[in-house]
From TrEMBL:
Superkingdom of the organism of origin: Bacteria
UniProt keyword Flavoprotein present: yes
Name of the molecule in the record: FAD dependent oxidoreductase
The keyword Disulfide bond is assigned to this record: no
Domain FAD dependent oxidoreductase: 2-307
GO biological process, one term: glycerol-3-phosphate metabolic process
InterPro entries: FAD-dep_OxRdtase, FAD/NAD-bd_sf, G3P_DH_FAD-dep
Cofactor: FAD
Pfam families, per database record: DAO
UniProt keyword annotations, A-Z: FAD, Flavoprotein, Oxidoreductase
Family as reported in the entry's similarity comment: Belongs to the FAD-dependent glycerol-3-phosphate dehydrogenase family.
Gene Ontology terms, MF aspect: glycerol-3-phosphate dehydrogenase (quinone) activity
Length: 347
């Protein structure tokens, strides 16, 4: 059997790798290079996604919490555990009861993953770890563990593993119509945000619809002493301030788009992230001129909620003839998604 996988983002790469491990002859196509789109523009977190508990995505969070361990075991040179602080302020944002309940559930779902349990920190301990943080009204923080990766390097490592097993990688090759790949026995459409466009080259209406939600990050050229998860002031949205490769990574936004193409971050998004950062980091305020890099990616989310923050991060498949279309998902669970896709191909 010969299989063509279109799209060398993390989902296509994991699918091709899973097929190659099963001894299937597989060719992985990308119109540019591996990991050149959404999969290199993530928040670099291998995480369960604490906030998804609020929308009842317990199954997904549980899977993702254990998937973190798989990545740490597979490629310890490209990812590591990361302690995250969740500061709590008096009379601001979610109640301490809600936060504590979420953390406890996160811990329970992570049982057996080998990650340490969360702990409570006093204000003085929080400020010792993150001295720039505003002390006003600070009542403490939860400290819990997730993991951090170099998304581009880890994704390219997956592609290398695939090639080492004899897989073919074809770059700078755009598949304009799935009929071009008719010589293959099976075809996988793993083009992430563009999956709907490629699906439209086949007859019939798609059974699943995508929502395109752009997310932007900014980078400050300064060390970030501790990773933090915080609420955007005046909203229940969560954003991150993270140490990354000796710099500070701040993200993300959620801007719904009418299509998959990535226009890059807008000035409004950059301002939004700077304001959110400065609201908390009163001892380390950043100006527009401190932003040394800004980047964005488009999330290919399954259309499931009016508010993009509440949209599911699960994935779904659609089979049309010999083509398997893959929609949605997240980086952390991409290996499970690829294994799932390969299983369907081989059934
Ligand atoms: C801002 C942001 C932050 C995120 N943070 C996290 C995080 O911290 N942790 C986490 O787990 N998840 C995170 N995610 C989600 C995760 O990044 C995505 O779910 C994942 O990267 C999607 O991968 P993909 O392979 O489906 O798509 P992509 O990475 O976009 O890959 C699609 C590939 O298909 C190729 N392609 C498209 N059309 C064609 C064609 N016609 N012919 C050939 N090739 C084609 C493209 O060139 C591209 O390489 C984040 C997403 C965003 C946007």
């Amino acid at each position: 059997m010969r299989v063509a996988v279109v799209g060398a983002g993390i989902v296509g790469a994991c699918t091709a790798w899973a097929l190659a491990r099963q001894g299937v002859r597989c060719t992985l196509f990308d119109r540019r290079q591996p990991m050149c789109e959404t999969s290199r523009a993530s928040s670099k977190l291998l995480h369960g996604g604490l906030r998804y508990l609020e929308t009842g995505q317990f199954r997904l969070v549980g899977k993702a919490l254990h998937a973190r361990t798989d990545w740490l075991e597979l490629a310890p040179h490209l990812c590591h555990r990361l302690e995250m602080l969740l500061p709590m302020y008096r009379d601001k944002g979610r109640s301490q009861f809600v936060i504590s309940a979420g953390i406890r559930i996160y811990d329970v779902l992570a049982l057996g993953s080998g990650f340490p349990r969360a702990r409570v920190l006093k204000p003085s301990e929080v400020l010792a770890l993150q001295p720039g943080l505003s002390p006003e009204g600070l009542v403490g923080a939860w400290a819990f563990f997730d993991a951090q990766m170099d998304d581009s390097a880890l994704g390219n490592w997956v592609v290398d593993e695939f090639c080492d097993l004899g897989g073919d990688l074809v770059t700078e090759h755009e598949v304009r119509d799935l009929a071009e790949l008719d010589d293959y026995d099976r075809i996988v459409n793993a083009t992430g945000p563009w999956a709907m466009q490629l699906r439209e080259t086949m007859p019939g209406k798609p059974s699943i619809l995508l929502d395109w939600v752009r997310g932007s990050h900014i980078v400050l050229d300064r060390i970030c002493p501790a990773a933090m998860l915080l609420e955007v002031p005046g909203s229940s949205r969560i954003f991150f301030i993270l140490p990354y490769q000796g710099r500070t990574l701040i993200g993300t936004t959620e801007v719904r788009q009418s299509g998959p193409n990535n226009p890059g971050p807008s000035e409004d998004e950059i301002r939004y992230l700077l304001d959110a950062h400065n609201h908390y980091m009163t001892g380390a305020v950043a100006m527009r001129c401190d932003v040394v890099e800004a980047f964005s990616g488009v999330r290919p989310l399954l259309r499931s909620a009016d508010n993009p923050s509440e949209a599911t991060r699960e994935w779904a498949f659609e089979q049309t003839g010999k083509v398997l279309h893959i929609y949605g998902g997240k980086w952390t669970t991409a290996k499970l998604q690829g294994d799932d896709a390969a299983h369907r191909i081989l059934q």
